[in-house]
Design a protein that fits this description.
Elements lengths: L12 H4 L18 E4 L3 H13 L5 E4 L27 H10 L4
Parallel strand pairs: 1-2
GO molecular function: oxidoreductase activity
Keywords: Oxidoreductase
Pfam families: DAO
Length: about 100
């Protein structure tokens, strides 16, 4: 059976700096939770943490196919582009972008 998620050869740069973690066993049997978050990337962990803050008694479970931070969020630094680099935008689009990105 082909894997549906990436199987990276090396740890992400962030996880490579940390001591090795103890492997966690796969879930067995029936699991009970009030909230299940799929994915232990930045968004999934932030969502789970916030939910727990708002509902401290909720049973929040985070499930990931790999280790925390080993997927795309742990491997992609992201980037921002300045509006001036959007050379393919026409003048009307440029004005709209400037309006959307101004504080006034």
């Amino acid at each position: 059976m082909k894997q549906a998620f990436p199987n990276y050869q090396l740890k992400s740069g962030w996880n490579a700096l940390l001591p090795d973690r103890q492997a966690q066993p796969a879930l067995q049997g029936k699991q009970v939770a009030d909230v299940v978050v799929i994915g232990a990337g930045f968004t999934g962990l932030a969502c789970a943490r916030r939910w727990q803050e708002l509902a401290p008694n909720a049973r929040v479970v985070v499930i990931d196919a790999s280790e925390i931070g080993e997927g795309n969020p742990g491997r992609n630094s992201g980037f921002l582009l300045e509006i001036a680099l959007a050379e393919d935008a026409n003048p009307a689009n440029m004005q709209r972008m400037l309006t959307c990105n101004s504080l006034t």
